[in-house]
Structure formats: structure tokens, C-alpha cells
Amino acid sequence: MTASTSGARTPSRDVEQALVDAAERVLVRDGLTGVTVRAVAAEAGVAPMGVYNRFGSKDGLVAAVLVRGFDGLRAAVTAADAVDPTARLLASGREYRAFALAHPQHYAAMFGGAAGAAGAAAEVAESGAAAFDALVDQVRYAVAAGVLRAGDPRETAQLIWSAVHGSVSLEIAAGLLTPDPAATYEALLQMLLTGLG
């Protein structure tokens, strides 16, 4: 007997996850402006009140999508677990780009002002900070191994993040003027290693 025929209710956490999944599908299909309570409810097959009951507003729903995005970016940055610090930094940079290119709508929403406007801005900021701290940890590892020069690891991480973010943002917006974006990005990573080494 299934939950629907037995009268059992779907656990609230499962419903929340299903709504965030639906919001992500709408985001990918229609962009951030398409992520409305009505559109997400229709995508998930629930009444709009179900969205309001779990997220309070559209902003709360968008915040949940952004948190998931920043969590995915953090996982990408930390996926590189090579012992060699140079290989780890390069892999971290490559995974950052791979995440952004695989999730361009998420990436644009995460860094396009939606994070500050989202109702649960504190939770979004916390997830964004955790993604940045993952890069700071990679920098600390490289500094300890002598691959990057000593200094404030947060400042060094900010320099790296600024450079890679700029590069992938241009690539997503079709603003790169070089014939091979992957090669250009690799050159950027090597330049960062050399300049910060």
C-alpha cells in the first residue's frame, strides 16, 4: 500500500526537497525571473499554499535554491583531494569552472544579486561563506607546503576567487574573445600559481 492510498503523509523534509528540486528545474528552464511560487507549485504538483507553508515566500524558496547552489560549489572546490598542493589547487580551480559551466543559471543567480534579496539571506550568506572558506582551506594547504607565498590566506583566496569568477562569468556570458576557453582558463590558473607563488 502506498502513502497516497494509505492516507499517510509525505514527510515535510521530503516535500521541501521536492519543492527545491522543482524550483531548480524552473530556474534552469525559465531563469531566475521564472521562479515564482505559482510556477514552482505547478512544477511540483502541489498547491501554491504548500510553497508558502514551507518557505514563507518566493524569497525563502529562492534562498533554498541558492543555498543548494553554494553547497554544490563548495563540494566542487573541495573535490580535489590530491596530496600534491599544486595539483590540488589546479583541480580545485578546474572543478570551480566545471560547476559554473554545468549550472549557469544557478551560478548567475548565486552571484547576480539574488542572494542579497532572498528572504533567508543569512542562510545564503552562510553557505556562500562556507564555499569561500573551502577555497581558503585549499590556500592554507598550499601555503603550508610552500607552493604559495605566506600571507593572509583569506586575501589570497579572494584574489584567486575574483580571477576565476571573472573568467567563468565571461565564458558563461559568451564574453571570451579567445578561441579555446578551456586553454585560456588553464593559462589563468597557471598565471595565478606563478604570481602568488
Structure overview:
The structure is a single chain. This protein is mostly helical and 197 residues long. It is built from eleven helices and no strands. The protein has helices spanning 3-6, 12-30, 37-44, 48-55, 58-78, 85-102, 104-111, 114-117, 121-144, 153-172, 181-196. Helix 3 crosses helix 4. The protein starts with a helix and ends with a helix. The model is unreliable at 1-9 (pLDDT under 50).
Approximately how much beta-strand content do the residues carry? under 5%
How far apart the termini lie comes to 63 Å
CATH architecture of the largest domain: Orthogonal Bundle
Low-confidence stretches: 1-9
Level-1 CATH class name of the largest domain: Mainly Alpha
At the fourth level of CATH, the homologous superfamily of the largest domain is: Tetracycline Repressor, domain 2
Structural class: mainly alpha
Proportion of helical residues: over 70%
Alpha plus pi helix count: 11
CATH fold-level label of the largest domain: Tetracycline Repressor, domain 2
Compute the average pLDDT. Answer: 88
Q: How many E-type strands?
A: 0
Number of domains: 2
Oligomer: single chain
Order of helices and strands: HHHHHHHHHHH
Net shape? elongated
Largest sheet at a glance?
Answer: none
Name a few traits of the molecule.
197 residues; mainly alpha; Arc Repressor Mutant, subunit A; Tetracycline Repressor, domain 2; 2 domains; 76% helix; elongated; disordered N terminus
In summary, what is this structure?
The protein is mainly alpha-helical. The chain contains eleven helices and no strands.
